[in-house]
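Lecture 7, part 2: worked example. A protein chain together with uridine-5'-diphosphate.
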Amino acid sequence: MLKVHTGSRSIKDYTGIIPHAEFEKILSLSNKLKGLKVLHINATAFGGGVAEILHTLVPLMNDVGLSADWKVIEGTQEFFELTKRMHNALQGKEDDLTEKDIELFMNITRKNSDVNFGEYDVVVIHDPQPVAIPAVANKGSAKLAWRCHIDTSTPNKKFMAFINSFMKHYDAGIFTLKRYAGQLSIERLYEIPPSIDPLSDKNRELTQEELKKSIEKLKIDPNRPVITQVSRFDPWKDPKGVVDTYRNLKKNHPELQLLLIGSMATDDPEGWEIYEDLLRYVGMDYDIKVLTNLNSIGNIEVNAAQKLSQVVLQKSLREGFALTVSEALWKGTPVVGGNVGGIPLQIIQGVNGYLVNSVEEATKYTDMLLKDPILREKMGNKGKEIVRNKFLITRHLKDYLELFRDLVR
Ligand code: UDP
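Predicted complex, written out as structure tokens:
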């Protein structure tokens, strides 16, 4: 396993952003947990929501007095192809888990057993890729939690049974929504939604200069309307549905531009295929930009795209949470999002955006927003407050501290 080095964060920097009471609560909880040794394990240090969160959560845990580490497992291309299939199957896709798959999974798991859980008080293992490590590593007296970020409420049964066979090693399960845990046998269930960091380059206020540079990199005309979806190249994120929505809108909004921003995560080999297929689907329309981290679209450019867009789309068909929704709302941009998974936690119909079940609905609501700047501003302001109250990293930290307190009590 490889240790991930993060930047630093100080809880004090959040005082002007979050309510004072929340700040006090964090300090009071962390005072009782000083020196607690915590380890987070996941599959990748970059790309996707889990890495995004850990880059802030881990340094914040250290800042409030815990001793937190983050390690990522090492795998092969073949292994990550299997775990991507696993991810899809756990979200409900038809597939078959073969003996060969299980052998590969356990082989890589064993290669990542070079960790002594006994050195920690609490170990949090994120998502399916490292789920089996407790079956082969020395657990010592550490308390173990499995944090599943995906929507496993209607899973492929064979894959779910496989995951379930490891649950006996865990003391707690953490899900974005309790109902995701449906068929798993876990003793203690915690519901903890993800969060965004208001101070990260992804979410902080950008300077005029940064915005100007980002516009150049995003290759958009700032005087014409833009809609954006930011997401990995993944069929569940429905990028083609977004293109269809844009094409419908283009008839009444000939000036409209579409930004499709997607990163290539190291644990997501399917991404390239989807990307190439999407480019073909987009064809010769130069008002659609398909951009990736390989076009130097990083956190600041994503931030600018979410800020500058009239509407942000997250037209997912399955979704654990969709950090991208809270990210856009935090910038005062209304979001039209798929009515699935964790998106309805963040979007209140007609208040800060719209929940949609089809391309037609996405077209209808995006059209309404594009036509009405006052509505956009009203919804954007509401959206920001909803995120402030529920989906900032400080609330997430507080939830984790409460969980740790329960586990080591
Ligand atoms: N992301 C990014 N650049 C991209 C695509 C995604 O920075 O090109 C970030 C996005 O801003 C968000 C995270 O990756 O912070 C994706 O998290 P989300 O929960 O939306 O989806 P996941 O990838 O975990 O399914």
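The longest strand covers residues 37-42. The chain has a mean pLDDT of 95. Keep this in mind for problem set question 3.
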